[in-house]
Amino acid sequence: MNQANLTKIRTNLHRRQLINSLFALLGMMIIAIALIILLGLTIKMAIQGYPRITPEFFTSFPSRRASSAGILSAWVGTSLVMLVTALAAIPLGVASGIYLEEYAKKNWIADLIEINVTNLAGVPSIIYGLLALGLFVYQLRLGESILAAGLTLALLILPVVIVTTRESLRAIPNNLREAAYALGASKWQTIWDHILPYSFGSILTGIIIGLSRAIGETAPIITIGALTFIAFLPKPPLSGEFPFISFEWLQAPFTVMPIQMFNWVSRPQAAFEINAAAAGTVLICMTLGINAIAIYLRYQLRKGIKW
User: How confident is the model at residue 306 (pLDDT cuts 50, 70, 90)?
Assistant: First the structure.
């Protein structure tokens, strides 16, 4: 290689390194600008709603007077809907991911299912609302209930849980599976005793991300007929009389935090905007709390993993 070619290669390398550095700098600037704008809007909303975040705000029902309106029915409804969502989406999503990744044969049917599951993760949430309206409300006659809302949001996050579970299982080295088979373990014993414990941290991250998305969704909940003003709570799941467990709360009408905020924002009185800002601050705190739990659990689960 002569000196001219060597100089040309060095010039080309310097140019590529300069392009990479400029692209990294541009990406960091865009991320920083987006974070600053998001942080500024969040701080502004928290400052605006801070005067209304009192104990009475959490223990009061909505009211026509802004000074006495609260979010009791909204945060209770959100908690119950998310409970149904988690109970429906997590077992079904994780089991589907395990089957598709570990048991399903690699043929065109599996490829078709994989493509459809991946595409479903990007479908607008209003489509899930229309699907749930026809299936759960009209066909299964669940009505505008907590059960229908929870199942609707479960459908919404199910593709995310399935894809995350498959990616988590795929990340486990095959040497671990081969070692288990060499010791006489069955396929299910290998998955249950070795693969799932090592991949559960990543699976849990996907589950929490899905639940964090579901807690802020409004369109599918409105589509199935959630109430915008509700001044009572569903019956508690536990009672002092036999059989001590009640499922009547699943059929109760409900409202959730995003709908309560939408209701207050749409009112002409300026005082309700402060209530909406306070409710938004509480909702963000709930979402950050869920994410913080996910980060902590993932750290604890991955701490003892040594390949």
Answer: low
